Amino acid sequence: MSGNMNLTLKIWRQKNGNVQGELVTYPVKNISPDMSFLEMFDVLNEQLISEGKEPIAFDHDCREGICGMCSMFINGRAHGPKEGVTTCQLHMRSFKDGDTIVVEPWRATAFPVVKDLVVDRSAFDRVIAAGGFISANTGNSQDANALPISKFNADTAFDAAACIGCGACVATCKNASAMLFVSAKVSQLALLPQGQPERYRRVQSMVAQMDSEGFGNCTNTGACEAECPKGISISNIARMNRDYFAAKICKEEEVN
Amino acid sequence: MSNLGKTLSSSLGKKLVMGITGLFLVSFLLVHCAVNALIFLNDGGESFNRGAEFMGTNPLIRLMEIVLFAGIIWHIVQALVLTMQNKKARSVQYAAYTGNANSKWYARSMGLLGTLILMFLIIHLKHFWVVSRMTDEITSGRETLFGEMKEVFESPVVVFLYVLSMFSLAYHLLHGFQSAFQTLGFNHKKYTPTIQKIGVIFSIVIPTLFALMPIAIYLGIIQ
Do B85 and A217 touch (CB under 8 A)? Predict the structure, then answer.
């Protein structure tokens, strides 16, 4: 078909977390511009399998931009050159015939490589488990609208809740800091009445867990916000800082 | 560890220290620049020397000088600790990393810019602080601080170095000023744009004024 592309891919191959990895060059031919980046990887993997080689391991799930599973650091940027998209929503029309594309896994000590492009993001799960929830007693469900919420707060909380936990913020941050993720998870509950009882305990526990996972420290470069596929704002980081300092200065409840 | 110790050694606590010491150093720059700008009155350094004498003898200012040195050292030590942690947080580097696509180079180079400023600071302290505080050159009346300035800025190399260093300072401030407020939790639709504007103005005006001082003295515009 006309318009199809031939590309050179340089892909990080690493058998497991205990051995060194390296960039391996793979040529791919006849790639349709309408394919998604992951579909191009499917083509390459079919090609590798038919050649009797080990296919490339990469994370993916919903392929519609909402699950946060696909990762890939493409040509020096998390989820590739487009803004506001995950790798599954990146299409090959964003590249030109003859391009060389470098694909690496998320690089962070807290996200160890499992295999090839797959990294272990369970550090995020442990941060959530440390406090990113509300404790709701069971029983009959409440009357609707028993808790009034302003439209503005509902919208702002929803914007924070759009975080899909993909880890692009950590991957792109020069310090591999997780503060955008953690602040989004803190904010989505801090802005709503249901989140209030545990608000100050939550922020302290989640920050403590984040620190113990070995993420870096934020230097406010704003790279996370620019690369976030869901456009999470760094104003969430300021909110997390406010809540954290307020908790440390004003609250008596002991946390950790 | 004490409560305060635990708070200040957390990631957010360390950032808080960077922000507060940074803003404190910003306030110092403002005072330093205001006193030095007295040379632009072009009165043979008379007002400037009076200002310098006040700064050198007022007990409150002398006390603040100790706090200032503590602030500078804390800012530097904390930055070193943070940088080492940040390096550890990414043990394997990217083969390709397009930083310019999502952030400013000076925001990513605060450590480098800070190191350049520190190198300048050491030379600058040797030129003026050591002479005025560690020797009796000025207290004995053999020399004035303005006279010292004229002497130091006779050298075009020194003038060039001073001007160049002000670029490091300008870019360090361009990120640091607004970044400190973000760290302290001040991020608000209504006043953040104003903070950012003040930050840009401060980062341009203060280093420019500082840079004009050696230039004006070297060119003999200020006698």
Answer: yes
